[in-house]
Specification:
heterodimer; A: about 100 residues; mainly beta; Ubiquitin-like (UB roll); 1 helix; globular; disordered C terminus; B: about 450 residues; alpha/beta; FAD/NAD(P)-binding domain; five-stranded parallel sheet; 14 helices
């Protein structure tokens, strides 16, 4: 949905992060939500109410539609989370289970 | 020991912190971003400054790093109690700060612009897209549709084209004739904003060859799992549908109210800007004596005015603390007030040329994105129950109960209450904002050390 200026080239230090088990290149210090908007399916979570797909919307911490699990912590706003080497991210499906946080399926 | 806690490291917060430190008050600044600048100067330290205003922002951030007191980045405020006692979380640890004064410099957010389908992936705000450009240097991969009204739409269109992006078209909701009607305010706007006016005109001319549908009165984002097309209606009754992967929307900005609301500050309705804002006195002091408010969080006037208003509130705090006599304070703030008055005359032109649109909200609109409550459900909960206010309708429909805490539906709930009950917007009221203001883990709560 989005792309880096100059056809995808990253200019800051390149790091790798893992999103739902798949490794992606990202730029150190960029908002995590920016990465989610570059990689299919360009979404962040499914809602707990109807299960509908949502993607980052406001990018400034006021819509809470970009919630993901980051290094085991659920309901983290990916727009305020900065990318760093080795970040482990899971798109959030429905209401997170407080006891299941950080465990594998 | 902190004398003054500043919430927000944007233009107002940084300038206030510098002034307060210079006057011998110990300042702590908390901010939810990892680096200073706020939303307007996001990532200003790590990108090239474009134009005079951004150079001002970069310079301010550099001075703030050096002399702005204790700076706590990536720190969230989640509770403000009388005292004041301010509960914050940083790196998974919670603590309580007990300053003598709090300066709220929490800035603005985009006015929520609800329409059917606005919750679909593929619909985002223009402000959000601009943050992506500033902090990740990224642009839409395909020609993008822009919808709405206001200077930010023109600015982003200009920035996007300059960066090599493409615009599929503009769905312009600006009321017909508003720019012409604003002409009478132009002379007053020139002294403060001539540069902005010249640039705005250039951006507007730059869009001349872009497909533009004017007088848009209704929008609908269509798609099952993501945006596939946009339907629109114009004032003359024309309708159309265009295929789209990405739609960026904007209807101006409003003060971020959650901190001042949670702290119990009194608010009033600003009819020209169609938003609630905290009531402050001539020194930026709110109805809660220990709490001052500066910048766009007090009233929307833009980044340059926020720098001035931060300084003014700093003098107000120094005066309230007995560090500056009443007479010296008046002398010190006189030139700042003149500058703010000049900024307000510019703002009057902008508000007239690009008035808040507040498109009609059809029943099918998912008004509360978090709890997925529709405008129709909210209207039927309100109908025939004139006693039901924002908190009542929240209980009845769950609107405003989700994680965003009404940041995306609060203003629209206020509109619907005013509409159904036939009352003014101030009387219609706002959701009562409760702690925690930001999501908090049990671990963070458990880490709270009362002695800290």
């Amino acid at each position: 949905m989005f792309q880096k200026l100059k056809a995808g080239r990253l200019s800051n230090r390149e790091v790798t992060i893992v999103v739902d088990g798949v490794t992606f290149a990202a730029e150190d210090g960029e908002p995590l939500a920016a990465v989610l908007l570059r990689i299919p399916p360009y979404s962040a979570r499914n809602t707990p109410v109807s299960g509908a797909v949502r993607a980052p919307y406001c990018m400034m911490g006021v819509c809470f539609d970009c919630l993901v699990e980051v290094d085991g912590e659920t309901s983290t706003r990916s727009c305020l989370t900065r990318v760093r080497e080795g970040l482990s991210v899971r798109r959030q499906a429905g209401r997170p289970d407080p006891l299941g946080a950080g465990t594998d399926d | 020991m902190t004398d003054v806690l500043v919430i927000g490291a944007g233009p107002a917060g940084m300038s206030a912190a510098l002034d307060l430190q210079q006057r011998g008050l110990a300042v702590t600044v908390v901010d939810d971003l990892p680096s200073p600048g706020g939303r307007i100067f996001a990532a200003i330290e790590s990108r090239e400054a474009h134009g005079g205003e951004e150079r001002t922002g970069a310079d301010l951030a550099a001075r703030f790093r050096k002399d702005g007191g204790t700076y706590l980045p990536a720190t969230e405020v989640w509770q403000i109690e009388v005292g004041p006692r301010v509960f914050v979380t940083q790196s998974g640890k919670a603590r309580i700060l007990k300053p003598r004064f709090v300066l709220m410099a929490t800035g603005a957010q985009e006015r929520p612009m609800p329409f059917p389908g606005w919750q679909l992936p593929g619909v985002m705000t223009i402000g959000g897209a601009q943050i992506l450009l500033k902090t990740a240097r990224q642009i839409p991969a395909d020609p993008v549709w822009l919808a709405g009204s206001g200077p930010l739409l023109l600015l982003y269109a200009h920035q996007l084209i300059s960066a090599g992006g493409a615009i599929a078209g503009v769905l312009d909701t600006t009321p017909t004739g508003s720019v012409a009607a604003a002409a009478k305010f132009l002379p007053g706007a020139v002294p403060y904003g001539w540069r902005d006016l010249a640039r705005g005109l250039a951006w507007w001319v730059g869009l001349a060859s872009t497909r533009t549908i004017r007088g848009v009165t209704a929008l609908e984002a269509v798609g099952s799992d993501r945006l596939e097309s946009i339907r629109y209606t114009t004032r003359s009754g024309d309708t159309g549908e265009v295929p789209a992967k990405l739609l960026l929307v904007h209807d101006g900005v409003v003060p971020s109210l959650h901190s001042t609301m949670a702290a119990g500050c009194a608010h009033q309705w600003n009819d020209a800007q169609r938003c609630l804002e905290p009531i402050v006195d001539r020194f930026g002091r709110s109805s809660v004596p220990e709490i001052f408010v500066a910048g766009d969080g007090a009233t929307i006037a833009g980044a340059r005015a926020a720098i001035v208003s931060g300084k003014l509130a700093a003098i107000g705090i120094a005066h309230a603390d007995g560090k500056v006599s009443a007479q010296d304070a008046e002398v010190a703030v006189a030139p700042l007030r003149r500058k703010l008055a000049s900024a307000a005359r510019f703002r009057r032109f902008v508000d007239q040329a690009y008035p808040p649109v507040e498109m009609a909200i059809p029943d099918a609109t998912m008004l509360c994105r978090c709890e997925e409550a529709t405008a129709g459900q909210i209207r039927s909960a309100l109908t025939g129950r004139p006693h039901l206010g924002a908190d009542g309708v929240k209980l009845a429909t769950r609107a405003g109960m989700g994680p965003c805490q009404g940041r995306q539906c609060g203003a629209s709930l206020n509109r619907l209450i005013a509409e159904v009950h036939g009352v003014g917007r101030e009387e219609a009221g706002f959701l009562r904002i409760r702690a925690p203001l930001k999501p908090l883990t049990l671990g963070e709560l458990a880490s709270l050390d009362e002695a800290s």
